[in-house]
Each structure stands twice: as structure tokens, then as C-alpha cells.
Amino acid sequence: MSDSSLKLIAGLGNPGKDYAQTRHNIGFLVVDALASSSSLALNKSRFDSAYVKGRIKGRDLFLVKPMSYMNRSGVPIQKFASYYKIELSDIIIVHDDMDLEFGKIKVVQGRGHGGHNGVRSIIDSFGKKECVRVRVGVGHPGGKKGVTGHVLGRFTPDEQAGLGLAIDAAVDACLSILGDGITQAMNVVNSRR
Q1: In this structure, is the dihedral angle defined by the CA atoms of residues 138, 186, 54 and 2, taken in order, positive or negative?
Q2: Among residues 4, 2, 130, 11, which one has the least CA distance to residue 63?
Q3: Contact in structure between 59 and 7 (CB atoms under 8 Å)
Q4: CA 43, 53, 64 angle in degrees (round to 5)?
Q5: CA 107/CA 119 separation, integer angstroms
Q6: Residue 22, domain member (yes or no)
Q7: How many angstroms separate the Cα of 43 from the Cα of each of 36, 65, 67, 108, 174?
Q8: Which of 28, 113, 128, 152 could lock 13 by a disulfide, CB 3.0 to 4.6 Å apart?
Q9: Helix (H) or strand (E) segment spanning residue 94
Q10: Distance between alpha carbon 23 and the CA centroid of its chain, in Å?
Q11: Residue 1 lies in a domain
Q12: What share of the chain is helix, strand, coil (3-state, %, to 5)?
């Protein structure tokens, strides 16, 4: 991530109110919180995405929520990046992750999709995987059978109680990447218990 370049932070989710409070939409919730903490609102629309351009941590950047469904989210992000000449390595993707317990945050770069259809779509659309990802834990249902129901399910009362903290931690991870660079952000965020 080059320090001077324009950034793009994309939160992954599914459009529509049926999905609004589901685990799969935690990326949307984080980007909304990031916008709101900087007095921004994603009220513009382009390339099948809701977006806003603003300044965060002294950087000009776009906050983007692709409005295609999760498994097609790479297409709008790629169009956005192509139009504004943003490299994949200057993009942060925020998404739900079943391999992490609820509320746990991990920062990774250049990794495979790990079975996440939104991330797979991004890697397919760009033809590479250099993006930085903020993985937000949503826990695992236990078996393969319940996976779709789990990610598309609403938060349990316990999760709902911890959701604000999880979102804040993911926002902090994004701010840390912007302010301190990826390596430092990984060291700090990934070592948190």
C-alpha cells in the first residue's frame, strides 16, 4: 500500500433490507460506521455501488459498498478501481469470516479467498489477490450443512450485544492500516486476544 495513493475501502454484503442485519453484511456495517465516524455518508451511486469520497487519517479515499450480491461483488469494485486507477494493493476489503470466532478481527494481505464467495469474486475480477482484508469473525455453525443459513442469519441476542464492539474493532483495524501501514496494523490487530 503506497502512502500517497488514493485508497478504497469496500465493505462486503448483500443489498436490501432482508439482509441488513445478517452476519454476511458485517462488511457493510463496518464501512457505514467508518463513514459515520468521519461525518460521511455513502449517499452517492456509481458502478452498482453506494459510495462516498472523503478524507480519513489524512488520506483521500473512497468508502464503497457494492450493491451487486455478495458472490458478484468483485465486478463493481473492479470497475471502480479501474475508473479511478486504484491498484488492488491499495484496496482494503472488509468482510465476514466464519473461521474466526464472533468479534475477532484479523488483517491479512495477498491471501486466497478461504471459501468466501465475495472475496473469490474480487480475486476473479482482478485476476490477483494483493488486496488487504479485514476479516471480521462471525463464528461457524459447526457443520457444512448450516453454513448458508448461518451467514444469511440474523445475529443472536448475544452477538447483537457484542456487535458494536466487533464493528468498532474492525473500524480501528481500518484506521490502523491507513495510519500505521499494513505490517504494523497486522502486528497490533492480529495479536489481540
Answers
A1: negative
A2: 11
A3: yes
A4: 65
A5: 14
A6: yes
A7: 12, 11, 13, 29, 21
A8: 28
A9: strand 91-97
A10: 12
A11: no
A12: 40, 25, 35
Stated length of the chain: 193
Active site residues: 24
For strand 7-11 and strand 91-97, is the pairing parallel, antiparallel, or unpaired? parallel
The per-residue pLDDT for range 27-79, each reduced to its tens digit, is 999 999 999 999 999 999 999 999 999 999 989 999 999 999 999 999 999 99
pLDDT at residue 3, rounded to an integer = 47
Number of domains comprising the chain: 1
Q: Which of 119, 116, 39, 31 has its CA nearest to residue 74?
A: 119
Strand partners, 97: 137
Residue 2 placed within a domain: no
Q: Which domain holds residue 82?
A: 7-189
* Cα separation, 166 vs 159, whole angstroms: 9
DSSP 139-153: ---SSSTTHHHHHTS
At 161, list the grid cell: 450485544
Residue 88: its H or E element = none
The 10s digit of each residue's pLDDT in 138-155 is 998 887 788 888 999 999
| Contact status, residue 168 vs residue 175, Cβ threshold 8 Å | no
